[in-house]
């Protein structure tokens, strides 16, 4: 009970921390194995908040998505105003596209919800209200129009409502759609339907088990009236230059309590659509995170050049930063009206050492810059994941100097010491990092080392023990005969 109260207080602190001129209006936190959420130095601070009206343009209205290209061009899908804004990472110039041209009957956007940019002359938009995906160029000319597939593989009983988009290196397009549970809908470079990719699995939750129990006593009509459990829809996609796709699958909501059955799922899909993301956080820390994560709803994900990835939540308005091994490095943000807090964040992008968060209710873009603590953690984790454990000791030590609760730093230093054969010292760091598996490995090696270094003494002890047993037996037999 005490641990739960501390966790709640830490999370609430993120909302009530006062804003100062030199600090973000939130308190970042990480998770450890003792109490769960624990306050941590900020990995990102607020750089600025951008509003289009400050630049002489009509304010954003319910903007749902944006896309940052590799060369720092930002494409903002202003859904409420049915337009596309093109600017740069510094917001130094703007181009507006609201009227389209081409052979299509529909020459405006309608409630568009997703955008992917292959290059400045190949911009894909999920034009949800018009039930299509369109490809346009920088002048607003429609180059291609993708509508509902006529294939028997695609259900003809549902509407084609595209939501989010992603594309790969061979010009395949991946589209998440409302009511499609088989995964992302795939189209080739010509816009032809190819099939599905990355379907989520059905989780056996308490709702599923309860419904299964009651169905044993129901009529056919009653069974048909109950909810059917199918794989959840993919809600967001982001593809890396190396070809991996990060996706988000929202968990089921308990129809009685209104709470989520579990934390939303983030997957890293290989070209075959298989999730290869394996969490390496300690078991206890993961349990704390999974429980608190039921209060979150993930709406977007983006990965950077180091395959660190950032997940955006629109319930408590948090940003969760993970490394490529799915260790939660930091969680930050919060709900509110102050600059740096959010009301309804809808999309997140990354460029250089900055994050960009689109808020569909505040109609603004918040730019966050990496702090000294954040860059030190990045340096340490990147070196460690590249296998240079010894070189990672120095930056991990710096991390601990700034935050002595940072379990990942203890484990990192412990792994480096383990690699150097310093098993006893490694055990101490693994113990502080609450990594029982690595601690047991170090202990096993330390025990072997202890026996090896003291082998002669062990042999002498065994010989002495054997002789004592032998002479003791002889004496006992003599005594018996006497």
Overview features:
4-stranded antiparallel sheet; 25 strands; alpha+beta; Serine Threonine Protein Phosphatase 5, Tetratricopeptide repeat; disordered N terminus; 482 residues; Neuraminidase; 2 domains
Task: Describe this entry's structure for a reader.
The chain is α+β, with helices and mostly antiparallel strands and 482 residues long. The protein has 2 domains: 2-370, TolB, C-terminal domain (Neuraminidase, 6 Propeller); 375-482, Serine Threonine Protein Phosphatase 5, Tetratricopeptide repeat. Helix content is 28%, strand content 28%. The protein is built from 10 helices and 25 strands. The strands form 7 sheets. The chain has a 4-stranded antiparallel β-sheet. Strands 4-5-6-7 form a 4-stranded antiparallel β-sheet, with no helix packed on it. Strands 8-9-10-11 form a 4-stranded antiparallel β-sheet, with no helix packed on it. The longest helix is centred in the C-terminal third of the chain and has 27 residues, at 455-481. It starts with a helix and ends with a helix. Residues 1-22, 202-206 and 222-230 have low confidence and may be disordered.
């Amino acid at each position: 009970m005490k641990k739960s109260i501390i966790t709640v207080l830490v999370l609430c602190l993120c909302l009530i921390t006062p804003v100062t001129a030199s600090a973000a209006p939130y308190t970042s936190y990480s998770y450890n194995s003792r109490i769960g959420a624990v306050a941590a130095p900020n990995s990102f601070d607020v750089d600025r908040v951008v509003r289009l009206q400050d630049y002489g343009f009509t304010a954003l209205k319910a903007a749902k998505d944006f896309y940052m290209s590799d060369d720092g061009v930002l494409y903002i899908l202003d859904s409420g105003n049915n337009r596309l804004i093109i600017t740069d990472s510094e917001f130094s110039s703007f181009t507006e596209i609201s009227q389209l041209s081409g052979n299509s009957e529909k020459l405006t956007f309608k409630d568009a919800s997703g955008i992917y940019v292959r290059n400045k002359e190949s911009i894909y938009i999920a034009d949800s209200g018009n039930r299509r995906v369109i490809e346009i160029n920088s002048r607003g000319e429609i180059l291609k129009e993708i509508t509902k597939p006529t294939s028997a593989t695609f259900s003809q009983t549902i509407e084609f409502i595209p939501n989010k988009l992603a594309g790969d290196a061979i010009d395949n397009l991946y589209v998440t759609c409302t009511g499609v549970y088989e995964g992302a809908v795939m189209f080739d470079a010509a816009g032809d339907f190819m099939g599905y990719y990355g379907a989520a699995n059905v989780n056996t939750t308490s709702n599923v088990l309860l419904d299964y129990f009651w169905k044993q006593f129901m009529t056919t009509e009653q069974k048909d009236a109950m909810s059917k459990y199918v794989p959840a829809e993919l809600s967001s996609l982001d593809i890396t230059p190396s070809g991996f796709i990060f996706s988000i699958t929202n968990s089921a909501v308990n129809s009685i309590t209104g709470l989520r059955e579990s934390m939303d799922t983030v997957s890293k899909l290989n070209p075959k659509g298989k999730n290869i993301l394996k969490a390496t956080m300690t078991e206890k820390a993961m349990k704390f995170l999974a429980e608190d994560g039921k209060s979150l709803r993930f709406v977007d994900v983006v990965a950077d050049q180091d395959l660190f990835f950032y997940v955006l939540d629109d319930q408590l308005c948090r940003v969760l930063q993970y490394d490529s091994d799915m260790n939660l490095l930091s969680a930050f943000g919060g709900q509110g009206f102050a600059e740096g807090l959010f009301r309804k964040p809808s999309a997140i992008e990354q460029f250089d050492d900055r994050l960009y968060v689109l808020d569909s209710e505040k109609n603004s873009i918040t730019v966050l810059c990496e702090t000294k603590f954040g860059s030190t953690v990045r340096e340490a984790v990147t070196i460690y994941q590249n296998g240079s454990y010894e070189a990672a000791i120095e930056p991990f030590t710096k991390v601990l100097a700034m935050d002595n609760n940072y379990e990942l730093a203890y484990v990192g230093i412990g792994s480096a010491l383990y690699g150097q054969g310093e098993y006893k010292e490694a055990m101490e760091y693994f113990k502080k990092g609450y990594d029982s598996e690595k601690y047991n490995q170090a202990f096993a090696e330390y025990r072997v080392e202890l026996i090896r270094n003291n082998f002669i003494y062990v042999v002498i002890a065994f010989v002495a023990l054997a002789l004592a047993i032998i002479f003791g037996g002889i004496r006992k037999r003599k005594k018996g005969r006497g």
